[in-house]
């Protein structure tokens, strides 16, 4: 999936957010997740969507907190700010570098018109692929942070939280798909993350850049997953009125 105008716009917004990290960050609090809140009786599909969205939003909250720490803690702030400033100096380098997230190979809808032509089931499969594609990277993120000298406990704990929530979200989306289409054969092929060597590199700048890129790609995908879940929840409840809102 190459960067369309939509993707370029999103990349630009995220870059601006990264620049704003150098100055100020808003306080973010995570909402608690309680599995007992799910109602598997009447309206269980809506309840599953609500639960999935809560998981997604909590992951996003933890992601924002973790990024705040990466940009503010002495552990990583200096080199992360350097990466942002390098991107500001060379926009072509920025686009080339950040146009290679492993999930960009997925054919995802970028406009309302494209979304309208995707079935409810296929939309769920796209979400499932995005969530599943982060199982391996998040595992290695937690592992590498756990072995790095000087990793703040606050960063490591949030990385572990996101990994745990991603696993729960995978289960929840699988349950939604099974409810919509019982007996559907699951896709066994998902986008493969190939940056492990860079994440484990002895060279400090290469190592931290792999971290920066992983966090950028994770943020893009978490935003996308949350957006798609909310869109399908809207379609489930309100029908075609949801297509009046642009992605």
Provide a quick synopsis of the model.
With 247 residues, the chain is an all-alpha fold. The protein has ten helices and no strands.
N to C succession of SSEs:
HHHHHHHHHH
Q: What is the correct CATH architecture?
A: Up-down Bundle
Helix content: 55-70%
CATH topology: Growth Hormone, Chain: A
- Please write the CATH class name: Mainly Alpha
| Terminal residue distance | 16 Å
Low-confidence stretches: 1-42
Protein structure class: mainly alpha
Give the mean pLDDT.
Answer: 82
Number of domains: 1
Strand content: under 5%
Cα gyration radius (Å): 18 Å
**Multimerization status:** single chain
The count of helical stretches stands at 10
Could you give a short account of the major beta sheet?
none
Inertia-based shape? globular
Pfam family, one: Hormone_1
Keywords: Hormone, Secreted, Signal
InterPro entries: 4_helix_cytokine-like_core (IPR009079), Somatotropin/Prolactin (IPR001400), Somatotropin_CS (IPR018116)
Subcellular location: Secreted
């Amino acid at each position: 999936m190459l960067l369309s105008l939509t993707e370029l716009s999103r990349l630009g917004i995220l870059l601006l957010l990264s620049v704003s990290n150098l100055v100020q960050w808003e306080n973010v609090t995570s909402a608690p997740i309680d599995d007992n809140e799910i109602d598997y009786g009447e309206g269980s599909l809506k309840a599953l969507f609500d639960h999935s969205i809560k998981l997604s939003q909590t992951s996003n909250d933890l992601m924002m907190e973790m990024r705040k720490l990466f940009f503010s803690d002495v552990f990583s702030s200096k080199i992360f700010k350097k990466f942002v400033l390098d991107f500001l100096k060379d926009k072509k380098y920025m686009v080339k570098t950040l146009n290679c997230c492993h999930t960009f190979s997925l054919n995802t809808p970028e406009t309302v018109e494209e979304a309208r032509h995707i079935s409810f089931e296929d939309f769920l499969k796209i979400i499932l692929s995005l969530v599943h594609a982060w199982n391996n990277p998040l595992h290695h993120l937690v592992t590498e942070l756990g072995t790095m000298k000087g990793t703040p406990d606050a960063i490591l704990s949030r990385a572990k939280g996101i990994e745990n929530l991603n696993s729960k979200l995978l289960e929840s989306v699988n349950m939604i798909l099974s409810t919509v289409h019982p007996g559907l054969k699951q896709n066994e092929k998902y986008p493969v993350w190939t940056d492990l060597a860079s994440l484990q590199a002895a060279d400090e700048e290469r190592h931290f850049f792999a971290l920066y890129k992983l966090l950028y790609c994770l943020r893009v995908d978490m935003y996308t997953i949350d957006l798609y879940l909310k869109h399908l929840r809207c379609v489930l409840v309100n029908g075609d009125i949801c297509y009046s809102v642009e992605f």
